């Protein structure tokens, strides 16, 4: 939309030679883009090569392909369990974050209530709270609640840290939906709740995709909470399992790479699917505030 | 009229408020409380009120506090500036129309989804002299066979910066691309009819439009880079010789390893204050939200 504008101009006089200033030549795009792609993809490629090629091989191609490393990390090193744990934490955080932020974000956007301003300011302040620094008090709380070594501690901590930005994003998005649309539904006899489900919810899809995927990816990737609140191996999440693989100094690079692939594939896939909506969702919501 | 419908908004927002009160505000309060206490799990006989004692130690007797704070600042500034520059350039490029744009976007944005620990795993492979890329570079005459960026104190900082850039640039690229897409095409059209060059249009249309997004994203990223410990914790462990220890890394080490919760809480409070003052000052000085 914003680029090359070739306009049919009826010209009688010989055209004034104006350089098409709005044209970018191909190489101005492909050269820097190619270099940057190299920087992005070589590290991924390195991991894939080490994961799939046989032990002791020196080849720069993952050939002949072997799944030995995967078998080793999946069954021998417990990555199948870590994977399940990460999946549980990721999905549970996604659901709780989205539902809580949806209700709260709608209230912030559509109602003017006492304490609203204070809540907004408080929410901004929470952005300065360092996660690493909540380790001690959160640990104490979870110990009191009997949630140490429970994956639910991770779900709670993840959700709470995701909430402020999610609330801001969703309320920004709801504000962009004309209230008249909802009012029309009410006039037609919908209750506020039914009007919400019929009119608002469908239009919130990009925002929900953004919030949900943020929540999933963040909790899938979180390391510090999992390291601190869980110390039984059958409760480890992937980042913790991976960190232990890195920490072993006899480092088994094939296992490290295969574990990395296991950790990367779900989030990279999710991300590949949603990144378009993410840009849309942010365009319409958060950045404008 | 809307204020009158009293209960609904409170019911809707209650879950968020309760969750944040219980697991953000209360813990933060208790950090401040503990920061005024001697509280060491391994030395319970010394526990008790400490007043500002922890802060006195922190300010005047703990060189590691100042060293880690200094490194935090250096880390944040270098990362945020480089991520912003590369991210902006990347956003401008993938905002153009060209063949292969959709797949290029998906690929260059993808490291954003990768965790700090995994980033460490990948770059350890790349940096290691026996498994990494430097061996192959040496084969074609670039550098030596013994290049080991993570083991060499003179290169460990740069090595960590590059690894974090790999993962961090997409954040800016995504946010700035989102904002670029809201620039009205008519403005560019008008400007180019008036004969404005690309550079002039960038300076006079694009940059002013992006201003708020840049301020907000750099602030969020600065706070995030300050607080984030995953990468450095696993990549360098804060070493060699505390050279790459950030303040949160120092806190995490105090909390996880030495169980000195009182002093750890004082460090936490100090970091929180630093961040809050920095953020307020940054928003004020950058005139966030002001129309130019």
Automatic annotation (TrEMBL), chain A:
Compartment(s) where it occurs, according to its Swiss-Prot or TrEMBL record: Cell membrane
Signal peptide: none
Topology within the bilayer: Multi-pass membrane protein
Residue ranges of domain ABC transmembrane type-1 in the record: 83-274
TM region(s), chain numbering: 29-52, 87-109, 118-139, 151-174, 195-217, 253-274
InterPro entries: BP-dep_ABC_trans_perm, MetI-like, MetI-like_sf
Gene Ontology BP terms: transmembrane transport
GO cellular component: plasma membrane
CDD domains in UniProt: TM_PBP2
Keywords: Cell membrane, Membrane, Transmembrane, Transmembrane helix, Transport
Domain of life, source organism: Bacteria
Family, per entry: Belongs to the binding-protein-dependent transport system permease family.
Protein's recorded name: ABC transporter permease subunit
UniProtKB/TrEMBL annotation, chain B:
Membrane topology, as annotated: Multi-pass membrane protein
Cellular component GO terms held in the UniProt record: plasma membrane
InterPro entries (alphabetical): MetI-like, MetI-like_sf
Pfam families: BPD_transp_1
A GO BP entry: transmembrane transport
Main location: membrane
Keyword list, A-Z: Cell membrane, Membrane, Transmembrane, Transmembrane helix, Transport
Domain ABC transmembrane type-1: 69-284
Transmembrane portions of the chain: 12-36, 75-94, 106-126, 261-283
Compartment list: Cell membrane
Family: Belongs to the binding-protein-dependent transport system permease family.
Name of this protein: ABC transporter permease subunit
Native source organism of the sequence: Herbidospora solisilvae
């Amino acid at each position: 939309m914003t680029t090359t504008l070739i306009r049919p101009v009826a010209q009688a006089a010989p055209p004034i030679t104006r350089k098409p200033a709005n044209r970018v030549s191909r190489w101005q795009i492909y050269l820097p883009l190619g270099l940057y792609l190299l920087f992005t993809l070589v590290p991924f490629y390195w991991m894939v090569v080490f994961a799939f090629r046989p032990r002791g091989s020196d080849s720069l191609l993952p050939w002949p392909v072997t799944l030995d490393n995967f078998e080793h990390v999946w069954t021998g090193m417990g990555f199948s369990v870590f994977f399940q744990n990460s999946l549980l934490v990721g999905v549970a955080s996604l659901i709780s974050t989205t539902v809580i932020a949806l209700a709260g974000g709608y209230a912030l956007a559509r109602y003017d209530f006492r304490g609203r301003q204070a809540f907004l300011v408080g929410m901004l302040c929470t952005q300065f709270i360092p996660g690493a620094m909540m380790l001690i008090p959160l640990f104490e709380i979870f110990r009191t609640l009997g949630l140490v070594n429970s994956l639910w501690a991770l779900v709670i901590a993840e959700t709470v840290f995701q909430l402020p930005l999610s609330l801001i994003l969703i309320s920004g998005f709801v504000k962009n939906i004309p209230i008249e649309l909802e009012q029309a539904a009410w006039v037609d006899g919908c209750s506020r709740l039914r009007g919400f489900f019929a009119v608002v919810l469908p239009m919130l899809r990009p925002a929900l995709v953004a919030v949900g995927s943020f929540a999933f990816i963040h909790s899938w990737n979180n390391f510090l909470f999992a390291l601190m609140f869980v110390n039984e191996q059958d409760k480890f999440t992937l980042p913790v399992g991976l960190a232990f693989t890195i920490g072993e100094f006899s480092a088994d690079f094939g296992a490290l790479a295969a574990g990395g692939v296991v950790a990367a594939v779900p989030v990279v896939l999710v991300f590949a699917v949603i990144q378009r909506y993410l840009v849309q969702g942010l365009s319409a919501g958060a950045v404008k505030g | 009229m809307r204020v009158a419908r009293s209960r609904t908004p409170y019911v809707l927002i209650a879950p968020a408020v309760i969750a944040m009160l219980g697991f953000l505000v209360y813990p933060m309060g208790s950090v401040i409380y503990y920061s005024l206490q001697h509280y060491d799990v391994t030395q319970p006989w010394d526990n008790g009120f400490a007043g500002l004692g922890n802060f006195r130690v922190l300010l005047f007797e703990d060189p590691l506090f100042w060293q880690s704070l200094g490194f935090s600042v250096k880390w944040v500034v270098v990362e945020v500036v480089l991520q912003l520059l590369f991210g902006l350039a990347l956003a401008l490029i993938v905002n153009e129309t060209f063949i292969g744009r959709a797949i290029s976007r998906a690929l260059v944005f993808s490291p954003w989804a990768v965790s700090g620990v995994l980033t460490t795993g990948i770059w350890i492979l790349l940096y290691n002299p026996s498994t990494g890329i430097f061996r192959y570079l040496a084969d074609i005459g670039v550098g030596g066979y013994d290049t080991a960026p993570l083991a060499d104190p003179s290169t460990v900082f740069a090595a960590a910066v590059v690894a974090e850039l790999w993962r961090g640039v997409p954040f800016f690229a995504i946010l700035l691309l989102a904002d670029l897409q809201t620039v009205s095409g008519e403005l560019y059209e008008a400007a180019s009819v008036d004969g404005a060059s690309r550079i002039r249009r960038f300076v006079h249309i694009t940059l002013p439009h992006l201003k708020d997004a840049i301020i907000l994203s750099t602030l969020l990223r600065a706070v995030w880079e300050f607080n984030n410990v995953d990468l450095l914790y696993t990549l360098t462990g804060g070493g060699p010789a505390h050279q790459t220890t950030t303040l949160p890394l120092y806190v995490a080490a105090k909390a996880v390893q030495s169980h000195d919760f009182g002093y750890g809480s004082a460090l936490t409070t100090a970091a929180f204050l630093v961040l809050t003052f920095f953020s307020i000052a940054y928003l004020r000085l950058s005139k966030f939200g002001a129309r130019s």
